[in-house]
Here is the input.
Amino acid sequence: MIKFKHIHSRIAFTFLTVVVLIQLAGLIPLKYALDKHANQLAEEQINVGERVFVSLLQHNTQSLKQATQVLAADFAFREAVATNDAGTIASALESYQGRIHAQIAYFISSHEDLVIGTADNEQALFGENAKEDAMHAIVENQRGTLKFDIVEGKPYQLITVPVKAPETIGWIVMGFAVDGRLATQIKQLTHLDVTFVQKTDQRAWQLVSSTTTPELSNLLVKSVADIYRQKLSLHRVNLNDQAYHLKIRSLHETKDEAFLVVLQGSVEPFTQDLNTLFKVMLLLTFIGVLIFAVLIWYVSRKTTEPIAALVKDTDNIALGDYEKEIQVNSTDEVGHLAKALNSMREAVLQRSLRIQRLAFNDELTGLSNRLAFNQGVHQAITTHAQSQQKLSVIVINIHRFKPINQTLGRDFGDDLLRHVGQVLKQNVLSEQDIVARLDADVFAVLLQHTDQAKATRYADKIQHVFEQPVSVQGQAIDVRTGIGISLYPDHGLSEESLLNHAETALQESRAKKSPWIVYNTALEIDQSETLTLISDLKEAIQHDQLLLYIQPKIDVTTRRALGGEALIRWVHPEKGMIFPDQFIPFAEQTGVISDITNWMLRRACQVLAGFKKQGLHITLAVNLSTRDLNNMEFPEQIGHLLSSHGLDAKSLKLEITEGSLMQDPERAEVVVKKLAAMGLHLAIDDFGTGYSSLAYLRQLPVQELKIDRSFVMFMDKNSSDASIVKSTIDLAHNMGLIVVAEGIENEYVLNQLARLGCNEGQGYFIGKPMPEKDFSVWLERWEGQNEIDIDIGDDLSYDLNPQDIEPQVQDPFKLDHLS
Amino acid sequence: MMRWLMILTGLCAASICAAAEVTAVVTDAAGKPVADAVVAFYDGKTTALPAGAGGKVVQKNKMFHPKVTIVQTGTKINFPNEDTVRHHVYSFSPAKKFELKLYAGIPSDPVLFDQAGVVTLGCNIHDSMIGYIYIVDTPFFAKTDDKGKAVLKLNEGHYNYQAWLPGQTKPGVEQKITIEGATEVKITLP
Here is the structure.
């Protein structure tokens, strides 16, 4: 099948093919019929000619016969014959021959005893076969047939008439030469060319006379030979590129001789007219087809034009141009299609807008998302590179967002985020500045054309706004933020590095509890230093550079010492004391944490075994990592440790964070259940900072819930913190769990917790983390005096950056920490 | 002719001998009976023509009646024209050439046929008219009927006989026969 680029080509081609085929179907039979008709006319002409020819011959014969009969009937002639008067007969024949223009005249008596004759040609008369020929003529004439004969190489028509007295007593035979005269006479009457040909004594055919040109008649003689051999009466031949019909009639035929007349009619005159007719028909057909082709082309184009327009429109849509509406000009199928395409375009447009929104916008706040922010920064860098101006990337983080979200509800959290976003947006310097939400509680601001002074001014302004409590859902809440700033081109040339550095600065701001930090390379060095620490850590475990610290824990109500939480310290040979938040996160990432936990457990067991020897039945809590919870052999290892130290399972408490449970909840559940089955006491650490569902927690065999210190530390000053703590305690009690509060820093809080029904507590007010030997001292003192040793600044909690202890006291919102 | 036969019969019965009836049957080569054939018997003696013997061939309806006439040599025949048109009766036959130029009614003089042979009669005006006169040197002759049969009364004795057919230029072969009582003769013409 032919492939078409356009529908209208296909339509035009199909219709044209059909029309041409129909025309051909008409023309071919017409041509055939016309040819046949011409042939028939020519045949008819030649048949009529033949009949005319025959009747002419008969007429000629009749008149010749009548002329001859005049002589035969003459009484004197008959008397001469009857009396065998040869001289008289001869003279009578001679005079008669001349009178009727015969070339031969014979008299033959009935008894053949007398033959008298006269002829133009003596040979014709007395030749070898002359008498025989004459006798044949007599016999054939009696039968009524025309008699032609070749006498001495020349064709004659022989007429015989009997001489009666009154019986037939003899015959007069008259011979008339067949020559051009006869041929011309026939042609005048029949309009056919006449050719006489003969053959004598087996010699080749020869022309006797003809009305055609010598050239043509010679050609004719040649073809006659064939036709005669095949005994065809009517034949069509081509002579000199012209078609002729030949009708051949044998006038005389013996074994050796033949004399034929060939009637020849040209087909040309008949075909000429019909050919002209056919040519006119052909021309008309051609013109018709041409007109039809133009019409079809026009109509099919008109029909498919709207489709082509639609194709163009859809091409535009494919290229992403959804805005341009497709024109609907008709109410037919194409119109419907256009309408359908239009609604499709509309739908695609809406969808693409939505996708764009989703791709580049933060749905919650309506601000840009990380992707859009990155692109914005990228674009800004390009323009700023040209203008050689600075721009700043500011990353802002809301402190304590997760617990707020958890306790005050997600709706509240969302509103808070929207509010913060709004505040950030209201304070930008120009319209081109971009505010985005990068993560849950992390925002980013791009300030165009700003140097460090302008950027820090913006940070200050934000800081200032949030110094006042924020009102969300009719509830006042304090929002504290950490801000990191990086500048282009000072701190990075790409959007990634700018954002990374701003985030690094933010980390620093959080760590140092400062309102904002501008990035500087020193921050980087801190981090790389941390990395080198990791490689030292493995060595530290082996070379016993680690120390076990214990933070005491008491019963909140009775204020009796219960035991403590085992904490770790690293005494680096060069750097001195290193706190856990500097190496624990990395230890978790690298897997070294397992070794640390093992070391801790072993040390805790040793300590417990030591106290047991002294008769002190205290408990120690050890923090477990994600890796421990995913290690199926971990329960066995603990079991081994306990038994090797001769310890009761109850003396060891295991603290697990929500985060560590959530990594692989199914595995963790198995491990936790095994541990519980062994009689180990399990506690959820830092409750409120993760996202674990209570439903999940309830499934676990956990006995204890530890409220994160960030809620407890300032619950005496912050009502919302207090309510979070209260609701957490209630919740835990409802689930049948013991509640332990961390971060008790004064007696008021301790009393407050006692009032809220909290079971146990730990914190600086009770005792800072302390070395093993100090713990024995503390224990004695606490139990003995039941007094509180307030010795802040004497020791350090691994939770707090020692450098920030002073600011922490000034800033009660120092909540964010690693533990 | 009957008259001659009666005379002959009378002669035989009266003086010389007993007469016999001879039946001649003429057929052609195929055995078909030939009508109007002439049968003649010769006894070797020339018998004189009875005095006053004569005949006529009438032309009626442009035909000769009778078509075939047999006469003894020396008989005169008249050619009365009973048609309203005139005839020009002629003969180019060697036995008797004559010409009766256009005439009506009865010609004044009859034509004498004094030589044995066949005379073919024609009319110069009417080509279709044809008649034959057979002139024989014997009084014993007859013409066959439709069945090819001719009956003659002959005296017993020795005879030569032959048969002719009109149109044939030559008579059949002469044959010999002895008549004793009634005899049937079969003649086949070539």
Observations:
- The CA atoms of residues 30 and 128 of chain B lie 28 Å apart.
- Residues 1-15 of chain B have pLDDT under 50 and may be disordered.
- The helical segments of chain B are 2-14.
